[in-house]
Write a structure and sequence with these properties.
76% helix; mainly alpha
Amino acid sequence: MADETFENLPKEQRRSLIRRAAYRPLLSAAALVFVYFVIPMENLESASAIGGLVLGLVFVGALFAWQIRKIVRAEHPGLQAIEGLGLMLPGYLLAFATLYHLMSLSGPENFNEPLTKVDSLYFTLVCFSTVGFGDITATTEVSRAIVSAQIVGNLFLIAVGVRVITAAVRLGQRRKGAAT
C-alpha cells in the first residue's frame, strides 16, 4: 500500500486539501457572523433569550467534542484541526458577543456605553486578544463577572483547548499509522 501521508501526496492534491481546510472554516465563520447580525436580539429577560444562550453554550461544547472526534478519525488530522479551530473559535466568540449585546440592551448600566452588535463583537475580540483597550468597560458586578468568566474561558481555550486539539492530532496520526 502506498504511503499517503500529507507530505507524500501529489502537490496539487496537497493544495486542494489546504484550500478546503481554509475555505470551509471561512465560510462557516461567515455564516455564523451573518446569523449573529441577522437574528433579532431584543432583551435578556425573556426565557427564550436565556434558553438561547444556554443552547449556544451547549452548542459550542458539542461542537468542540464533535471536532475532536473528527480530528482523531480524519485522514489528515492536522488539516482537520485547522478546520475545527476555524469553526469553534467564531462560535465561542459570537456566543459572548451575543451575551454582551443582550446585557447592554437589558441593562444599559452594565457597560459604560450602550453596545450595538458591532460594539459587542469588538468588545469580545478585545477581551479575547488583549487585556482591553479601556474604551468599553464593564461597570456592574454582573457584567464584570461575565467578562471575568470570558477571560478564564479564553485562558482555558488557549491552554487546554490547544493541548486537547494537539493530542487529538497526534492520536489521529498514530491511528492512521497503525491502520496502514
